[in-house]
């Protein structure tokens, strides 16, 4: 498997279950969501717009995803609905960077780095004000994807999370997004 295979395997409708723990103060949070993930062609207007904004030739891109979600946090009644685009650009055989935009916004939201591991895991790192978030994703089986994430502030880990995602089917994208 390589990064392109990983992105292709991500396509479909997924049930997402996340448990996170904020270390100081100790507080846990559980979230559940439906995810719709689509692989986008490099000539998709949204991907062309990202490339234009980042002054990037899409030839170097290894793949692009549209991820839509509809979920809830435990103990909250309101739903969290949204969508994002991720564009992966190679800078070597097993690493590169990714660009992320929020649907409905014209500006880049984030730029981070990815690393494809020999264990067939994808690690994403994103630096933010005074800290960094690191997320590792891998497949336990074809229809079970797992991820862990750590959010650091300086040298201190502030939040840890574990997610399991179960493929519900190869349905088209969420029609509401």
TrEMBL record:
<dbReference type="GO" id="GO:0017006">
    <property type="term" value="P:protein-tetrapyrrole linkage"/>
</dbReference>
<dbReference type="InterPro" id="IPR018536">
    <property type="entry name" value="CpcS/CpeS"/>
</dbReference>
<protein>
    <recommendedName>
        <fullName>Chromophore lyase CpcS/CpeS</fullName>
        <ecNumber>4.-.-.-</ecNumber>
    </recommendedName>
</protein>
<keyword id="KW-0456">Lyase</keyword>
<dbReference type="Pfam" id="PF09367">
    <property type="entry name" value="CpeS"/>
</dbReference>
<comment type="similarity">
    <text>Belongs to the CpcS/CpeS biliprotein lyase family.</text>
</comment>
<dbReference type="GO" id="GO:0016829">
    <property type="term" value="F:lyase activity"/>
</dbReference>
<comment type="function">
    <text>Covalently attaches a chromophore to Cys residue(s) of phycobiliproteins.</text>
</comment>
<dbReference type="InterPro" id="IPR012674">
    <property type="entry name" value="Calycin"/>
</dbReference>
